[in-house]
């Protein structure tokens, strides 16, 4: 699906043959042309409320390193959060750390459905299609996010966090390798956990297929520059490939 010539959902490297599929739920702060009449504050769009700064850069470098398909919605999470279930109160956010999002107040049912149909549903359909194309190939699902260093006045000490649910296969490999670096403070289901409804995309697509999966959250001051994004991507690529070798010795599920 396109909007003014730009895709609303982007699939980079769709034929990537590596063992990972990468997602970036909050990659963009773009307002597609179809929603141009909605007036969000430009300042708000630039903050973590509008997107995950730096996450797409990491995801793209990681896609290159791992020859992995990368799927992301080219629309701000202020329009709709693709990493939330449809019955979530934060699917279309009204109250944020930065104040009220006036453009989302008193939203009509028709407008809500339009955002679902134009952004949320196509994004998840693209993930399903990608996993289906991979057939019987061993696959693990990784979502790249970033988080703000201070949230509601509370400093966050972690440079990186690994988010996971019941299936710990991939998460345990990542945590073990990251914690081997004494200079890193690694969040284990921090700064978020599945209880915060942040695990929706990964759970929706990985759990029914039995795929190893995890969310990687990187503090956004670590990836504010291209250099930082590349450095973290290269580091994570090595760790993920090590994890893949270990997973292949166990039950590495196929897509």
Count of alpha/pi helices: 6
CATH topology: Aminopeptidase
Order of helices and strands: EEEEHHEEEHEEEEHEHEH
Second rung of CATH, namely the architecture: 3-Layer(aba) Sandwich
Write out key terms for the chains shown.
about 260 residues, single chain, Aminopeptidase, seven-stranded mixed β-sheet, alpha/beta
Overview of the structural elements:
- The protein is globular and about 50 Å long.
- It is of the alpha/beta class and 255 residues long.
- The mean pLDDT is 94.
- It starts with a strand and ends in a 7-residue tail after the last helix.
- The strands form 4 sheets. The chain has a 7-stranded mixed β-sheet, sandwiched between helices.
- Strand 1 and strand 2 (6-7) form a beta hairpin.
- Helix content is 33%, strand content 18%.
- The longest helix has 25 residues, at 109-133.
- Helix 2 (55-66) packs across helix 6 (226-248).
- The protein has helices spanning 42-46, 55-66, 109-133, 169-179, 200-206, 226-248; strands at 2-3, 6-7, 9-12, 20-23, 70-73, 95-96, 99-100, 140-147, 150-151, 154-155, 160-163, 186-188, 213-219.
- The chain has one domain: Aminopeptidase (3-Layer(aba) Sandwich).
């Amino acid at each position: 699906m396109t909007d003014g010539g730009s895709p609303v959902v982007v699939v980079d490297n769709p034929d990537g043959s590596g063992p990972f599929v990468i997602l970036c739920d909050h990659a963009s702060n773009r307002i597609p042309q179809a929603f141009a009449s909605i007036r969000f504050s430009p300042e708000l769009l630039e903050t973590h409320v509008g997107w995950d700064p730096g996450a797409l850069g990491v995801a793209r470098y990681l896609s290159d390193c791992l020859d992995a398909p990368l799927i992301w919605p080219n629309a701000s999470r202020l329009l709709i959060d693709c990493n939330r279930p449809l019955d979530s109160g934060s699917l279309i956010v009204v109250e944020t750390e930065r104040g009220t999002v006036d453009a989302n107040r008193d939203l009509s049912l028709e407008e809500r459905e339009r955002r679902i149909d134009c952004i949320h549903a196509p994004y998840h359909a693209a993930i399903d299609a990608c996993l289906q194309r991979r057939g019987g190939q061993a696959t693990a699902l990784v979502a790249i996010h970033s988080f703000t260093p201070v949230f509601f006045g509370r400093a966050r000490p972690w440079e990186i966090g690994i988010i996971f649910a019941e299936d710990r296969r991939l998460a345990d490999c990542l945590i073990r390798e990251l914690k081997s670096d004494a200079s890193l403070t690694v969040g284990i289901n921090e700064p978020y956990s599945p209880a915060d409804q942040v695990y929706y995309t990964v759970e929706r697509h990985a759990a029914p297929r039995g795929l190893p999966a995890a969310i990687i959250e990187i503090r956004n001051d670590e990836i504010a520059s291209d250099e930082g994004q590349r450095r973290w991507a290269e580091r994570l690529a090595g760790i993920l490939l090590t994890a893949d070798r270990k997973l292949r010795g166990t039950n590495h599920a196929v897509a």
